[in-house]
From TrEMBL:
Part of the Sec protein translocase complex. Interacts with the SecYEG preprotein conducting channel. SecDF uses the proton motive force (PMF) to complete protein translocation after the ATP-dependent function of SecA. Forms a complex with SecF. Part of the essential Sec protein translocation apparatus which comprises SecA, SecYEG and auxiliary proteins SecDF. Other proteins may also be involved. Forms a complex with SecD. Part of the essential Sec protein translocation apparatus which comprises SecA, SecYEG and auxiliary proteins SecDF. Other proteins may also be involved. SUPFAM superfamilies: Multidrug efflux transporter AcrB transmembrane domain (SSF82866). This is Multifunctional fusion protein. InterPro entries: SecD (IPR005791), SecD/SecF_arch_bac (IPR022813), SecD/SecF_bac (IPR022645), SecD/SecF_CS (IPR022646), SecD_1st (IPR048631), SecD_SecF_C (IPR048634), SecD_SecF_C_bact (IPR055344), SecF_bac (IPR005665). The gene is secD. Residues 65-121 form the Protein translocase subunit SecDF P1 domain. It holds the Pfam family Sec_GG. It comes from Anoxybacillus flavithermus.
Length: 748
């Protein structure tokens, strides 16, 4: 009897959820903050150094510096900046949406130490003599912009002006900002058109007052900026840039539009695939995946998270990974239907049997995500955060959302005699009366013998590994500045560029690049790399020059040798920790041989990706490491599903010979083959969409994922389980020999 109330409840629930998401989704999306790679801005890692010998950088000094930097950022009018103390002597500053990056960098890095000196560069007064917050922008008696300051002690200013007056004809009071001892001098600067000092006023009388006006060739904006800097106070330390990256607003806007388009296309392909292949459960999957996307954005909004370009990529990839849980459940239900079980029984057994597999597969990916978060930089942390949230959200929606919605349809009894609605051909269903506990699920791949050709697969992987080693020893990797240090500049133009044109423009700035590579659909983008680290002034000139030339502010990333070595070391540690964590987990949940086989398979996948990048000379950067760790976390999913099926079959059969082992592994691979192909296909849909339609900024990241995913499904089917057979067979033979010896020994 059909229970129409269940059908009505299903549609009411779908309409209710759809209405709620439709009414609130736009507001949630608007609330989510965009990272600097999506709205423009920059990130700088400063090494904090003492200004005087003997001084130590303490926690209080770092906090004081952060406070001073916050005041300066308020001058810029940037909303919600991020300033973090890292380690014992570093501060990371992230400013998204800043309009004038050159000005912002200058304001942040300047120590803002005001000094009053004579023509011989002797200090007469400094910033400590100023009243706190007493500076303001004014106009002098000629109507020119000036800066009015208040001094604490009129008598001291009287003494200073007396001393300068007595030095006639050199009776000049020179005002400096950030005077560098041993480098700057009045004698060097006085003849220049644009001297470093702020002003040099002749003193013709003694002043006994606290109100002083600094007069120079200021614009109103420059005078206001100086007043704000003086009010913000001098930095108690010296800041040295050791890592920085900046993104022009146009780059960020274009990357956002391209990636969202790629995401829509990738997700649409997944939806179509699920409906075509799984029919009714596929429709339920589309509904739960929509809820999953909404849930992720909602959680990200609650967390007050910052969405980065890799973060959007993780969200899109997460949709492909979320389907994994649905496919595992649906394939289990289909297996039970093929064994002649009723729809209700198949639904219950499928849900119960898939829970542990989904849990194991998700936890291994979370391990990789946590390691990424611990050892990654800001953009990689954004990817890791979104990856972890995606996994948790997919688990909730797949386990509880799918069960609720699909359960309503199943329990309605409307589809009891309609297995084709669940993607099962009635011809493939066995007679329940002839099915026993030992009956295998019928599949289309029963003729495939995976174990028989294991030596061939081992030989192929061995040959690829040897080729990869040779490539790495000879060609090595094309390391980006993240690991090799240096400077990278991304240029964008509204017309096609040529390498010669870009080099000519750089020559005008007296800059010699290591290489120039054109990219973009019409060669309208160029990637320029420098061996050395450009300083702040060079970066400022470069940005201004190309913004004026092409109308788009370029992206500039700088990595010092120190940070480059640290990033390389952290990348190695991250891969090592992720591998060890996965070995421990799989050992606890399964057994040691399965854990070792799984880790060799996933390291095999990661290595082949590295070898591919060596062969193609694609640039290796931090997002590449994120891709490798994602592959490590994801490629083991297929392996775990196969091992889970092996364990399930072994519970029903007694293993006495090596042939029994081989038969079990073959049956497990045959039964999980469809699931392995389908899950990798759904993720590949999103990766290919990102490759074709997404931003060039994460193209190498997507290529690494694509190669890794293909290698992952190959190693799951042809490497991991076959390795387990080899080791388990040796253990079985050893155990049999010992048993035979014991049986052969005469009784005493």
């Amino acid at each position: 009897m059909v229970k129409r109330s269940r059908i009505i409840a299903f549609f009411l629930l779908v309409v209710l959820l759809g209405g709620m998401m439709g009414l609130t989704a736009e507001k949630i999306v608007k609330n989510i903050k965009l990272g600097l790679d999506l709205q423009g801005g920059f990130e700088i890692l400063y090494e904090v150094k003492p200004t005087k010998e003997g001084e130590k950088i303490t926690k209080d000094v770092l906090l004081s510096t952060v406070s001073a930097l916050n005041k300066r950022i308020n001058v810029l009018g940037v909303s919600e900046p991020r300033i973090d103390v890292e380690g014992n002597n570093r501060i990371r500053v992230q400013l998204a949406g800043v309009k004038d990056q050159n000005k912002a960098r200058e304001i942040l890095s300047t120590e803002a130490k005001l000094t009053f000196r004579d023509v011989h560069d002797n200090v007469l007064m400094d910033g400590s003599d100023l009243v706190e917050g007493g500076a303001k922008q004014t106009f002098d008696d000629k109507g020119k912009p000036s800066v009015a300051i208040q001094l604490k002690d009129a008598n001291k200013f009287k003494e200073v002006t007396q001393k300068v007056l007595s030095m006639a004809p050199n009776n000049v009071l020179v005002i400096w900002l950030d005077f560098e001892e041993g480098v700057d001098s009045y004698a060097k600067e006085v003849g220049k058109e644009h001297p470093k000092f702020i002003s040099a006023a002749q003193v013709n009388e003694v002043f006994n007052q606290t109100d002083v006006s600094i007069v120079g060739n200021f614009t109103v904006e420059e005078a206001k900026q100086l007043a704000d800097l003086l009010n913000a106070g001098a930095l108690p330390v010296e800041l040295k840039e050791i890592y920085s990256t900046s993104v022009g607003a146009q780059f960020g806007e274009q990357a956002l539009q391209e990636t969202i388009l790629a995401g829509i296309i990738g997700v649409a392909l997944i939806f179509i695939f699920m409906i075509v292949f799984y029919r009714l459960p596929g429709i339920v999957a589309v509904i739960t995946l929509s809820i999953y996307i909404y849930l992720i954005l909602l959680i990200f909004d609650w967390m007050n998270g910052v969405l980065t370009l890799p973060g959007i990529a993780a969200l899109i990839l997460g949709v492909g990974m979320a389907v994994d849980a649905n496919i595992i459940t649906y394939e289990r239900i289909k297996d039970e239907l093929k064994l002649g079980k009723s729809l209700m029984s198949a639904y219950r057994i499928g849900n119960r049997g898939s829970f542990g597999t989904i849990l194991d597969a998700n936890i291994t990916t979370i391990i990789a995500g946590v390691v990424l978060f611990a050892y990654g930089t800001s953009s990689v942390k954004g990817f890791a955060t979104m990856l972890i949230i995606s996994i948790l959200a997919s688990f909730i929606t797949a386990i509880y959302g799918t069960r609720l919605l699909l359960g309503l349809l199943v329990k309605s009894r409307l589809f009891d005699k309609k297995p084709h609605y669940f993607g099962v051909n009635p011809k493939d269903i066995l007679d329940i009366a002839k099915v026993t506990d030992d009956t295998d699920v019928p599949t289309k791949f029963e003729r495939l013998d995976f174990v028989k050709r294991s030596k061939l697969f081992f030989a192929i992987s061995g040959a690829l590994t040897i080729i990869g080693v040779v490539l790495l020893l000879t060609a090595k990797l094309n390391l980006g500045i993240d690991f090799s240090s240096g400077t990278r500049v991304d240029l964008m133009s509204k017309k096609p560029l040529t390498i010669e044109e870009v080099k000519d423009e750089l020559n005008e700035l007296h800059l010699e690049p290591k290489d120039v590579v054109l990219s973009g659909n019409n060669n309208d983008m160029a990637i320029v790399r420098f061996l050395g680290v450009l300083d702040q002034k060079e970066i400022s000139k470069l940005k201004s020059h190309f913004k004026e030339k092409y109308g788009v502010e370029p992206n500039v990333s700088v990595v010092s040798p120190t940070v480059g070595k640290e990033l390389a070391r952290n990348a190695f540690i991250a891969v090592l920790i992720a591998s060890v964590g996965i070995i421990i987990y799989v050992t606890v949940r399964f057994e040691m041989y399965m854990a070792l086989a799984a880790i060799i398979a996933l390291l095999h996948d990661a290595f082949l990706v590295v070898a591919f990048f060596s062969l193609t000379r694609l640039e290796v950067d931090l997002t590449f490491i994120a891709a490798v760790l994602t592959i490590i976390g994801y490629s083991i999913n297929d392996t775990i599903v196969t091992f889970d099926r092996i364990r399930h079959i072994m519970k029903k059969r007694k293993v006495k010979t090596v042939d029994d082992l081989k038969d079990i592994v073959n049956k497990a691979l045959q039964q999980t083959f469809t699931r392995s192909i389908n899950t990798v296909l759904t993720v590949i849909f999103t990766v290919i969409a990102l490759l074709i339609f997404g931003s060039d900024s994460i193209r190498n990241f997507n290529l690494a994922l694509l190669v890794g995913l293909v290698c992952g499904v190959y190693s799951s089917l042809f490497i991991a389980s076959q390795l387990w057979v080899v080791w388990k067979a040796k253990q079985l033979k050893t155990g049999t020999q010992k048993r035979d010896q014991l049986e052969a020994e005469p009784e005493v």
